[in-house]
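Side project, low priority. Logging it here so it doesn't get lost.
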Amino acid sequence: MATKKNIFIVEDEEDILEILKFHLSHEGYAVAAARNGEEAVNDILRKIPDLVILDLMLPGLDGLEVCRALKKDPKTASIPIIMVTAKGEESDVVAGLELGADDYIAKPFSMKVLIARVRAVLRRKREQSVDKNAAVRIRDIEINPGRHEVLVKGKAVEMTFSELRILHLLASRPGWVLTREQIVDGVRGEDYAVTDRAIDVQIVGIRRKLGSKSDCVETVRGVGYRFKEQE
């Protein structure tokens, strides 16, 4: 029998916390929880979970501070974090993603959607870190950085070096929302300049060249971009 995955919930609203615990336990996860940031950080350090569901609006130490504390500590830095935000908190979403959170969901949300996000993040966690030269094949698109080649439905598409690297980064993490800064960081180190503002221009070029597959690269308003997982 597979070992249960441990999920830690940080949520100060008791009714929401109980609903989360019930449904996640029903899905077969082992669930622990805290209702404030200080308790959460202490408990997580004592027993490292497989994933944290973190409400950003907490008394005392808020969710962003909890995220920052966990990502700074080597013992907890690799724990995936799904942020729970109030509708319209785009600046907090961006801040959390830039601190290293893996995903977010806005209140009110359906449990089916949350559980799907949990499964997706845990699945990503099992995957190895992206090899910048590894070929990626997804949704009739093939990206081969080593050969500087992009194929759409088997047909070669010309892309600039930076366009190819950005597309490869997004396609290597389908479903992940990446901020512009994260995209810059992901392609930085190559021998060309790419800036935060230039990302939007590069995305326009990528979509145009993908043609009928342009909708694969999705804008997440106020946050950044992601490569769609499904048709």
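Brief comment: The chain has eight helices and twelve strands.
Revisit when time allows.
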